[in-house]
Write a structure and sequence with these properties.
Length: 439
């Protein structure tokens, strides 16, 4: 319904509706400044991982890193720190003007911007209500394959939905469990579609696809399509995108904790997160201070049955840069306490094989830049879960636009990972098998 209204307004007003200046009195709209922007997109020449870590350590918002170039958004207050790295900075312009150009404000009859839906050109993405409806429909259509539960609530009390897919979803079987998580970062909307694709493929495909049936029969698959539903809704709430990354939990100076700096393995150890509440990589007041990471942690902890963690493998989907990343993120070292040479080799071997099927670039996550409090480090460090990050399409993007590809790419860019997902599931009985080791 929202679409037809939007189409109507768009048709009536034509291209002039694209925001290049404030066109609504809605106070929630960030005014687009013409002279001194609040947030500027920079490209930075960063040939080495140390250069990229130095950039990340300033607390700026790192959008992506590819081929020696890191793209960031810097607040005015962060520019000095960025300059102090001594790296070559190329300003690409006003971040908020870029975002405004992507979105169209949706006018309700009273003239206010309506809330909580994607702008024109993005209707194929699922907002929270649409995602919830899709998950409910899946269990209605496939009661013998899928079960929907909530692992708890977000800061703003949204359900953190989890769907379990197996050939007896109400039963805890003695089979390897595989976890897929999406949307830790609010603006990475393509990842929700990725998780929904996994759900749809392993349910709708069961009756007709022998490979799918075999995987569902031999594994228990858990999918959490939105770990950060508040952030995702906040990102789209005005009808044009905010470029929001964190959750929406207030902190002492600003809003939001970065979920992917809030995990409790070497939390805040190594300069890979920020203690500043206004930073986009704010780590929170303590490990698991964000309710969203705490609830996902609780679920994973609850899968220790008889002293044995049932979940063996995990992918956390992000955008963008087209990368496959594995632990550790907190150190450049290839091996460390809790990660021996065989394990590092198995991580890399499966990572490279998955990359062979989707065309992404495989690397240890710290080779991108150092992060601490990331999800993969916790999954492996605490539970020995073979845990990867996929950074999805695009490989590179002009600043914040990279987070907002049109809905026309969803089908191809999610299907692109089918082979990698199947490989992960296949090796979930024993990942070291991939290097000829036993479990
Ligand atoms: O920085 C992150 O949390 C992830 N990238 S994103 O652009 N989606 O925010 C990457 C985390 C991977 N870990 C390390 N690079 N250490
Ligand atoms: Zn991310």
């Amino acid at each position: 319904m929202h679409l037809s209204l939007r189409a109507l307004v768009a048709a009536a007003l034509g291209a002039s509706l694209v925001l290049s200046a404030p066109v609504t009195s809605s106070a929630s709209h960030r005014p687009v400044s013409t002279n001194s922007p609040d947030r500027v997109v920079y490209e930075i020449a960063t040939p080495g991982a140390e250069d990229r870590s130095a950039v990340a350590a300033t607390g700026v918002d790192v959008l992506g890193a590819k081929d020696g170039t890191t793209t960031v958004v810097a607040e005015r207050s962060q520019v000095k720190a960025l300059e102090a790295t001594g790296l070559e900075l190329t300003p690409l312009g006003d971040a908020d003007a870029q975002l405004a150009a992507l979105g169209r404000v949706d006018f309700a009859p009273n003239g206010d911007a309506t809330t909580l839906d994607f702008p024109s050109g993005y209707a194929g993405y699922h907002n929270f209500a649409e995602m919830t409806a899709e998950l409910r429909q899946t269990v209605t259509d496939h009661p013998n394959l899928a079960r929907l539960t909530s692992i708890g609530k977000s800061y703003q009390n949204r359900d953190l939905w989890m769907i379990k897919i197996s050939n007896a979803p109400a039963t805890d079987q003695a089979k390897p469990e595989v976890l897929f998580t999406c949307n830790q970062h609010a603006r990475e909307h393509l990842t929700v579609e990725m998780c929904l694709r996994i759900v749809q493929r392993f349910t709708d495909g069961y009756a007709t696809n022998a490979a799918v049936k075999n995987l569902v029969d031999t594994r228990e698959i858990f999918v959490v399509p939105s770990v950060n539903p508040d952030g995702a809704e906040y990102d789209i709430a005005t009808g044009s995108f905010r470029g929001w990354r964190k959750n929406v939990q207030p902190n002492s100076t600003a809003t939001g904790t970065d979920p992917n700096r809030n995990w409790g393995y070497r939390w805040g150890c190594c300069g890979g997160s920020s203690s500043s509440g206004s930073s986009d990589t704010y780590r929170g007041t303590a490990a698991f201070s964000a309710p969203e990471t705490a609830r996902l942690r609780d679920h994973v902890n609850s899968r220790v049955v008889g002293g044995v963690q049932q979940i063996t493998t995990h992918i956390d989907f992000h955008t963008y840069s087209e990368l496959i990343l594995w632990p550790f993120g907190y150190t450049y070292d290839d091996t460390a306490t809790g990660l021996n040479a065989d394990q590092a080799n198995a991580f890399a071997t499966l990572g490279r094989q998955m990359a062979g099927s989707n065309g992404y670039t495989p690397q240890q996550s710290s080779d991108l830049y150092i992060t601490d409090g990331g999800i993969n480090d916790w999954m492996w460090g605490v539970h020995k879960i073979w845990s990867y990050t996929f950074e999805m399409y695009p490989a590179s993007g002009s600043g914040l636009n990279g987070f907002y590809p049109r809905d026309t790419v969803i089908a191809a860019q999610t299907a692109r990972n089918d082979g990698a997902v199947d490989l992960l599931l296949t090796y979930s009985d024993c990942v070291p098998r991939i290097i000829g080791k036993t479990c």
